[in-house]
Amino acid sequence: MEESRLVLSPSPHVRDEDTTQKIMLTVAAALVPAWAAATYFFGLDSIRLVLFSMAAAVGSEALFQAIRRKPITVWDGSALVTGMLLGLSLPPSLPTWMAVFGSFIAIVIGKQVFGGLGANPFNPALVGRAVLVASFTAQMTTWTKPFTDAVTSATPLAGGQASYAELFFGTVPGSLGETSALAILLGGVFLFYRGVLDYRIPVGFLGTAAVLSAVFGQDVVYQLLSGSLLFGAVFMATDMVTSPITPAGRWIFGIGCGLVLIVIRFWGSLPEGLTYSILLMNAFTPLINRWTRPRIYGQGVKQA
Amino acid sequence: MVKVKSFKGGVHPEYNKHITGDKPIKVLPAPKEVIIPLSQHAGSPAEPLVKKGDSVLLGQEIGRSTAAISAAVHASVSGTVVNVEPRPSINGRDVLSVVIENDGQDNRAPMNGHPDPIQLPSAEIRQRIESAGIVGLGGAAFPTAAKLNPPQDCKIEYLLINGSECEPYLTADQKLMEEYTEDVILGTKLLAKACGAEKIIICIEANKPEALRKMRALAGSNAIQVVALGVKYPAGGEKQLIKAVLNREVPSHGLPAQCGVLVQNVGTAWAAAKACKHGQPLIERVVTVTGDGIKEPANYLVRIGTPFKDVITAAGGFVGEPGKVLAGGPMMGLAQYDLSVPVVKGVSGILVLSKQVTKDFDPMPCIKCARCVDVCPVYLMPVTIEKFAMNAMWNEAEDYGAMDCIECGSCTYICPSKRALLTWIRLAKTEIAEAHRRQTS
Q: Looking at the domain A20-291, which fold is it?
């Protein structure tokens, strides 16, 4: 018998079919409804910004890895997702070069300097976005009305007015991917169904925001549907790499995000607190993991 | 909707039970030569009682130990001892083995049966099980007599008979329950009497309706309960079974007896019945030969000591080029490099995966998806222990419960980055155990 060719390796000998690449592409697919909605509302700007963000993210990753003489791993899809997330979080009128710059920061400063995929403490897309807001505050807070090029300063969260229906369908000024609650929820349900999204983080995040809005006498539905809260709670806070790995930890993380967001929205000088709420909680992720170790089977049980 | 019992964690690998699920158990003719390792069980190896040139009878004891945890071994054919020498075994090490040339006569050693063994006193049942060399046939091969005799301060309340067979591909236990129902039930009653358990529960995964039906029909009285388990790996893990069926937990580093439970495999019950009724030692067992690399997958009743290659040949040989030959199933089975290794008491299957389906997995960076945390049936954080092991941080690995790992492999199975989590945890366990040994010596 052909023994010499038998493969020896430790168990288990079979693996689940899901791969990291499939997970990343699933997230990208889940962002398509939001992107499609953005393109419907804001036209070619949506295509321009998201495409350039994605290309810049993938290009920056390849370039950085080539310079460091490391294997180029852009095919894993993670840089693509980062670029897509960043692109969808930008205002429609932003110049292309700023989007490219943001993607470069997201990948190089947000991810590669820490060691690449899986090693970054902060959500790379949000790092890119935070740097853009700090560097180009005016351009990053210039909004256009859907279906027009008309500039407006009033997003629904910053003094603007919108009906629940407008907020739900997304016909309001805002960042590209964040305006349509419907499109975001479609993507979120798809991710949940595919086992890529843990419900605890968005539920904890949105639940806390809703409860606190009610406590402080704000319109709960309006608070949930306006701004980038929904987009962030579904797509940004749930980033696997930068959120806790324990079930209890994910609850704490989501609730913490909601808490910080509401503090910034109600008492901060910024109109929106999503970016900083998640980045702040990202910093706590290692600690949360340490504090929320699951009880091991058979530990702390009474002997019969 | 039938109510099923389940546990937290676990995975759903492709079960592939259909390949051999409807194949009746065939008796595999005894081979020309059997190789009987003196250590087929957990605990001390047996000492040989025969030497080169001796003639032996079928069922004759050829190895024995006086150690507290060990098991006797018996000749599975009659014939002549060709040699007593180290031979390759399924765990990759050479083990002192008795090699017997089969004379084809099956001349039996005297076997002391009993027409109604349930009348035997419990001490005698234990004694018969011990002298029959019975070990746990589910795979761990722990000597059964020792398990039936738990520490003085533990009262056994429940006997769980494990017919879950959650390991993919394998159908040996299923066929045993379907075809030897009577003996399995008798063995169940004998084991219960031997350990003094008041309540008996037979646990079978819900994907074996025929086995459930037959066992229920014969279990009869209310003394034996038959429950359906949710189909999920590792439902048949001792700790998971106890959690699912009784909602009790075995204390960490403790014994099931400490929570009033004893778990025995259905094959063990069958072997106990044979030992008490016919006085027959453990010289044969049911083995599933299966996989896409086998021409005629089947369930065989195989003599202990039959070389793997004889079983594979009987099953029509390989289809194309074999990739992996496993002793056991795909989740916990041991890969083999030498097909002269014999079927031992703990081998419930021979799985041949073809070259095409034998994949080499390149680990990618961990993306902290936490699926390993979600599926771990003892609630560990495999990814964290892996990280500690990679950095030789053994104290931290122990603190995070590495020693509680049951090595089911669910973490490695589910990992989308194809990381060898269990392999690293095993390394941590070895290092931690070694450190403890150094400390105590």
A: Ammonium transporter fold (1.10.3430)
